[in-house]
Design a protein that fits this description.
Elements (H helix, E strand, L loop, with lengths): L1 H16 L19 E5 L3 E8 L2 E8 L2 E10 L2 E10 L7 E16 L2 E12 L7 E7 L20 E3 L4 E3 L15
């Protein structure tokens, strides 16, 4: 009887470890947390995310890259599919797709709360292995998930390194471009 009980326990533990989240389980959403918002990612630029129930819809844009995020949220965890189009050559965008996840965390930066998404992205059916994907929530911004190129999107705003977030009255500095290269 002891061996049978051991096998049942081991099978149960194995089943728990092989869920669709690849070992990730949702925790409680931190107090004051909401996936809905405008986020800034150093890797993927400005991200607009809206949550309706468990459904997540979003978009991101940085330089010649534009993409969408569609997924589901449970507690502090989003699991999503992404599609990205890169317009490296005019009228010939490359398209990539994959999966990923974000975990909502709140960290203290001095005396100020910093709302962050911490996760990974993967190619095709993998939700990890492509690299980290992190973002900081911008304050005083409303998300706009209209297709890129359309819609305004909540006004200006920029990242505030000293304060650990974004303020509506700051614009990000433009990168200097050497005009002689073009």
């Amino acid at each position: 009887m002891g061996m049978r009980r051991f096998v049942i326990v081991m099978v149960g533990l194995l089943a728990l470890g092989c869920g669709g989240t690849m070992g990730r389980s949702a925790g409680a959403m931190p107090p004051g947390g909401s996936f809905t918002g405008v986020w800034f990612s150093g890797q993927y630029g400005e991200m607009h995310i809206i949550q309706n129930g468990a459904a997540i819809q979003g978009r991101f844009v940085k330089d010649e890259r534009k993409g969408t995020i569609i997924g589901e949220a449970e507690g502090d965890l989003i699991e999503f599919e992404w599609v990205e189009k890169k317009a490296m050559v005019a009228n010939r965008p490359n398209e990539s797709r994959g999966r990923g996840y974000f975990r909502y965390v709140i960290k203290m930066n001095g005396e100020r709360e910093e709302h962050r998404l911490e996760g990974e992205w993967g190619i095709d059916d993998d939700s990890s292995g492509g690299g980290p994907w992190t973002a900081y929530k911008m304050r005083n911004r409303e998300p706009d998930v209209a297709p890129q190129g359309g819609g305004g999107g909540g006004g200006g705003g920029g990242y505030d390194d000293d304060e650990g977030g974004y303020d509506d009255d700051e614009e990000p500095e433009e990168e200097e471009v050497d005009e002689d290269l073009f």
